[in-house]
């Protein structure tokens, strides 16, 4: 078999796998939607962690067996908050309830994500927003889509005309990083048209891929937060780097996704 035919067969296999992954992600989202509505009250950190775990387990009980059947030899990232590179091979990087705290507070900004990573490169991703029914998908070399419609990043060419966004550091982050986040927000408030600050990161990245906002930046961050959106933005024609403009990897200490027309300005702002 020629190399061209092998490549074509592999692409077709990945496209089929993406479709099946989206079905699994949608099923997990339906289960979480059934749990959504009333604000979940908690009085201690332990009660909060139990409530978060209950949502995670609800989705994982659906995702883990289905994704394992789809790719039996792929490993599974157990800790969704981990960062850094993965060992060689295929890995499922899953966030069963991205924006879990929002879900507990009856806020609409949450999703279910599943990304297949091959030798530290995201190959395909499916991100489902159960409250709207939207399904965002991306496949390397085949583009990014919303419910089958192609996505493209914005054509904004001036940061001063752009809407930008970031996500806060974790509640237990060290003070130096928290202050860095604050300083970056101040810098963007001076240079951009509008600055949005909210969790989760993935939903901002969906908006970059769809051309609704022009840039998203983040410091540190976990694989499960950034890999789905990184693939979606890249396949939608956007640029991915760290905050200083260098190539981004899961080991990077910062992250920037932007429309090409504002990427350089965003780097300059974040580097001040």
TrEMBL record:
It holds the Pfam family Inositol_P. Mg(2+) binds at residues 95, 225. GO terms for molecular function: 3'(2'),5'-bisphosphate nucleotidase activity; inositol monophosphate 1-phosphatase activity; metal ion binding. One of its GO terms (biological process) is inositol metabolic process. It comes from the Bacteria. Keywords: Hydrolase, Magnesium, Metal-binding. InterPro entries: Inositol_monophosphatase-like (IPR000760). Its cofactor is Mg(2+). It is an enzyme of class 3 (hydrolase). Its EC number is 3.1.3.7. PANTHER family: INOSITOL MONOPHOSPHATASE, INOSITOL-1-MONOPHOSPHATASE-RELATED. This is 3'(2'),5'-bisphosphate nucleotidase CysQ. It comes from Streptantibioticus silvisoli. The lineage of its organism: Bacteria, Bacillati, Actinomycetota, Actinomycetes, Kitasatosporales.
